[in-house]
Amino acid sequence: MALLTVRNLHARVAGKDILKGIDLEVRPGEVHAIMGPNGSGKSTLASVLAGRDGYEVTQGEVLFDGKPLLELSPEERATSGVFLAFQYPVEIPGVGNLHFLRTALNAQRRVKGLEELDAMDFLQLAKEKSKLVQLDAAFMNRSVNEGFSGGEKKRNEVFQMAVLEPRLAILDETDSGLDIDALRTVAGGVNALRSPERGMVLITHYQRLLDYIVPDKVHVMAAGRIIRSGGRELALELEEKGYGWLGLESGKSTTVVAKGGEVRR
Amino acid sequence: MTSALAHYLDVAQRFHARDASAPAWLKRVRAEGLAQLERQGLPSNRDEAWKYTNLAPLVGGTFLPPGEARGAGPLATAVEGTFVPPSEARGASPVATAMEGTLIPPGQALVARGLATAVEGTFIPPGAGDLSAVVARLGLPGPRLVFVDGRLAPELSSLSGLPRGLTLKPLRDALREDGETLEALVGQRALASEHAFTALNAALLEEGALLRLAPGTLSEVPVQLLFLTRGDAPVLASPRILVVAGESSEATLVETYAGVGVGPGATFTNAVTEVTLGDNASLHHYKLQAEADAAVHVGALHVRQGRDSRFASHAFSFGGALSRNEVHAAFAGEGGDATLNGLYVGRGTQHLDNRTALDHAVPRCTSRELYKGVLDDKARGTFHGLIRVRPDAQRTDSRQQNRNLLLSESAQADARPQLEILADDVKCAHGAAVGRLDAQALFYLRSRGIPQAEAERLLTQAFAREVVEAVPAGPVRERVEGLLALKLPGSARREVRA
């Protein structure tokens, strides 16, 4: 059975239609890449799946594990196994990174009827998982993302994912803004978390990420629809020919257009 | 308003008649207090200093001093003891009915939500009588004086372990034994002529404490004054605390005010603290106000700082239908340093009022001020901070911050910084803000599986942390954290929000 099924999903933000009929099916163990120029609706899809406020679903449905996802609160989605790695991780001064993550893990364990981890056991777990993304212990004791560099924030996202062990991870532009060393580290962490039970959706603007995380399927999004799906070779072709090859403006030049909301094909 | 004033004038006159054998100087102080109260009247919203304060809980209740509120009998029998004669117990009827076993009507029960929470909380014993358990929970290691319903409770107090050079005395004893010292101290900092409630406190001067530090005395353990009100009689408590710190001495003083939730009735605490810091002396002052939610609390702290002295005030206001927290610090010698921190956390219809005044009268003094408010439901918080830099006070360095977090649509915060700068070579900065929980942060936490109520609690704690963590780690911080935990949005609210 599919882990995630998206059927004819339409959504709007502030009265503006952004998603115009998305269909997507992710099975356990699969890694899907969703590519597309800025403004194509990639991040909106991620936000709708995670349950961010301000997005109105006007048509279609989303099933997670065969059950309707959209009626769940963000915390219920997280607890049922959906994880969003944020494009822009939020800085939360005054809330310790480790305390935050232990609270989250224990909230999820509570719902699942599992025993909560005490501070010592959790610290052990956190230390082990942090090695995956080479996150220094000093970061774990600071406030959530406060004063972190771009790369540290993205590594912190993958670290959280490693601790929470979701069944579906949606990585929203986790690669953008990273230099090559940071990208390798983040990709290494993500690869280590690939498993036959876990599905992943990588949302990215750049093909470069896919040199490090090899996807099973690639989708190209434009103007709120998936216009092309294929294997890894689709990404390579895109890399070679640019978005213009599919009748799309290249990423850079569409930025301006995308601010108006609509990308013309 | 007039009738409330008449009531307190009556109360003071009866008190003076009862204590006719008091020393002449004390009679003078009390009479002056009465005269000043009569001259000024009780404040109203027309007074600039009380413009934002909801005085209804104060004028609505008719409070009586400890000697009248339940008869002058010893504390042990007081709970079952004599009631005030009808002629003196005006306004005390709700308490009397409650005592007879009538259940609290639903409306009042809502108002008393704070009480209910407190009873379920960590520091309130289930039974009525066992105050020693409260003292064990709220008390700190070290010497302490405990007051119950405005009266010293010697059996709960402890004066053992006083460091050399430190004198701690109940005011009652000091009034008898140290007349000359007290005559010079009372009303030195807190002027009855400028404050109606200080005048009322002076008119009823009897209970409180004297803390003296000989020059060079270092007190490692905190001195604690614990004021408990039981809420089963309409008590007016009027403690006066006098602190004299000799040159280069250093001490920590903790004033804790707590409602212990025996009865649902309102009480009125009207406290005045006067501090004189000698040259190079240092005082860490903590005020933990966790009165019952039906209580009225008015507290004024006045400090005069000598040369190179250091004063740090940490004022936590959590309880009371009406809470007024005043801190007045005046620099009398160069090189002084003052830190005024405050955290006020309100819900229901609580009104939490903060008034600070820093008087930079001499050059080269530094002041740092940070007040934060967390307001939920229909609670209202106000901050009015005056910084006065007099013409001579060159090289003053002063910073003031007031930040408020509103947790509901109906909560309200008023921030009023007031800078009067009459010198030209000074650094003065101030800022004020009122905001809500960050929606992005809230979503981030929830997206990791943290339920909304818990996420709100985490963010609220984070907001308050700056003030809490300004208290050095140790028993005082632990008490603050314990009391704060009872006030934050949490599990009790989860069903309401879901």
From TrEMBL, chain A:
<dbReference type="InterPro" id="IPR003439">
    <property type="entry name" value="ABC_transporter-like_ATP-bd"/>
</dbReference>
<dbReference type="GO" id="GO:0005524">
    <property type="term" value="F:ATP binding"/>
</dbReference>
<feature type="domain" description="ABC transporter">
    <location>
        <begin position="4"/>
        <end position="248"/>
    </location>
</feature>
<dbReference type="InterPro" id="IPR003593">
    <property type="entry name" value="AAA+_ATPase"/>
</dbReference>
<dbReference type="Pfam" id="PF00005">
    <property type="entry name" value="ABC_tran"/>
</dbReference>
<dbReference type="InterPro" id="IPR027417">
    <property type="entry name" value="P-loop_NTPase"/>
</dbReference>
<dbReference type="InterPro" id="IPR010230">
    <property type="entry name" value="FeS-cluster_ATPase_SufC"/>
</dbReference>
<protein>
    <submittedName>
        <fullName>Fe-S cluster assembly ATPase SufC</fullName>
    </submittedName>
</protein>
<keyword id="KW-0547">Nucleotide-binding</keyword>
<keyword id="KW-0067">ATP-binding</keyword>
<dbReference type="GO" id="GO:0016887">
    <property type="term" value="F:ATP hydrolysis activity"/>
</dbReference>
<comment type="similarity">
    <text>Belongs to the ABC transporter superfamily. Ycf16 family.</text>
</comment>
